[in-house]
Specification:
The chain has 331 residues and is of the alpha+beta class. The protein has five helices and nine strands; from the N terminus they run αααααβββββββββ.
């Protein structure tokens, strides 16, 4: 049976439509792959630039730490601990930044190594803060460097992971040009002799210029309206408040500072009104205010109010007490 020209034409159209569809699918796929490739290249370049920035900041931390250890004689104990604490905050912040990175597929392995490096450096510097304190507090006849060893082990692990990270970025050069990453090493010498010497120099720094000094000042509400015969005159109110300001004028951080207020009515045997507050920690140069409210008053009475705070081995006890003698007006 002969095939009609119409049937042939219809099969031809179907084949042409199928070919056009297949060409369309291939073109779309190629475009999608090209877009994905360009996007991946851009994300990879962005990630490497991000990692390079983190590495440069870690290099600055490493240099600061090495400079500190090379010149311990120039710093007292509070300055040493403050510098290490500041570096610990920086490394911790950098570790947090690594957790926010957008990691493209070509950089996945490198990112894992960089994450280990940054986390290890952060752990090491944080451990170093406690290790330095422990070494400084050792008695002269003992020399235990194990706290330093643990901190330096963490730092060295970070160095090894970072070195591997830099090596793996060479494989990414097929995708994008990689930055010239800086050489970051926190640990250059872990020989026992080096750590022993570091421990000895740290212990020499523990007593340099150490000063303990807590001072107290205060103000009242209401404030005295004047002075008569050397006695402050206070407008009468049923209750007054006192705001005490405790300042650490030394160079050593103090923990658990007790602040005591006493309001005593002169000329009577009544127990004074008293209250104690605890300041958990106060660093060198820092101040903290404590308000004591609802201190009861009577009209036409004479009072002495005192606020005191002190620490062991305080260098100046004269500034540990604030005192005010005042009389209240009659109603």
């Amino acid at each position: 049976m002969a095939t009609s020209s119409f049937a042939v034409e219809r099969r031809y159209r179907r084949r042409r439509q199928l070919a056009i569809f297949l060409i369309f699918v291939v073109v779309i796929s190629l475009i999608t792959l090209a877009v994905r490739y360009r996007s991946e290249r851009r994300e990879t370049a962005d990630y490497l630039a991000f990692a390079d920035g983190v590495a440069l900041e870690e290099l600055a931390v490493s240099d600061s730490l090495k400079t500190l250890f090379a010149s311990l004689a120039d710093f007292d104990r509070p300055a040493i601990l403050q510098r290490i604490s500041s570096l610990a905050v920086t490394t911790s912040d950098l570790e947090d930044q690594m957790g926010t990175a957008v990691v493209p597929r070509p950089a996945a392995a490198s990112h894992g190594l960089m994450t280990v490096a940054v986390a290890s450096w952060s752990d090491g510097v944080i451990a170093l803060e406690g290790a330095v304190t422990a070494v400084m507090d050792q008695p002269d006849e003992a020399l235990n460097v194990s706290p330093l060893v643990e901190a330096f082990d963490a730092l060295r692990l970070g160095d090894l992971a970072y070195s591997s990270f830099v090596d793996t970025t060479a494989d990414i050069e097929e995708v994008v040009d990689t930055p010239q990453f800086p050489a970051v090493t926190f640990v250059e010498d872990t020989a026992p002799e080096y750590l022993d010497g570091l421990a000895r120099r740290l212990r020499l720094s523990r007593i340099l210029d150490e000063r303990r000094d807590i001072s107290v000042s205060a103000n009242t509400a209401p404030v005295p309206a004047g002075v008569q015969n050397g006695v402050a005159v206070m407008p009468y109110v049923p209750a007054m408040s006192v705001t005490a300001v405790v300042t650490n004028q030394g160079n050593v951080t103090h923990e658990e500072i007790e602040v005591l207020i006493e309001l005593r009515r002169d000329g009577v045997d009544d127990e004074p009104v008293s209250e104690t507050r605890l300041i958990p920690s106060l660093g060198p140069g820092a101040s903290q205010s404590e308000e004591f409210a609802d201190l009861p008053l009577l009209p036409g009475a004479l009072y002495t109010v005192t606020v005191s705070a002190e620490v062991q081995d305080d260098a100046d006890f004269d500034n540990n007490l604030w005192r005010l003698l005042f009389a209240t007006n009659a109603e």
